[in-house]
Amino acid sequence: MFVPHKYTTLESKTQEEKKMKVKKGWLAVTVGLEDEEGELQRFVIPISYLYHPLFKRLLEKAQEVYGYHSTGPLRLPCSVDDFLHLRWRIERESNYHHHHSGSFSFHAC
């Protein structure tokens, strides 16, 4: 029985690999709960998120649930909707701080 490969040409494989690469200063994460319908979703986030207090709490929860050792993208134990809300809050705070000089910014120097 012939099973087709995911990539039919070298060119399409290269294009797919480019999509999977993460640019410098960014981090790939997977989000989703095991009891949710659907698959885990992959997001690419700026490394600056790692310094935000809300995201730090999520990282602590990930360590409790999954431990420190993992292969592939960092897995976050929250629903996709909760992650999108968290991302919105971080971006909103980041935009507010960047528009008000003298305000605290959580981005790394």
Automatic annotation (TrEMBL):
InterPro entries according to UniProt: SAUR_fam
Pfam families from the xrefs?
Answer: Auxin_inducible
Example GO biological process term? Answer: response to auxin
Spell out the family assignment given in the record's similarity comment.
Belongs to the ARG7 family.
Listed PANTHER family: AUXIN-INDUCED PROTEIN-LIKE-RELATED, SAUR FAMILY PROTEIN
Mind telling me what this protein is named?
A: Auxin-responsive protein SAUR32-like
Source organism of the structure: Nelumbo nucifera (Sacred lotus)
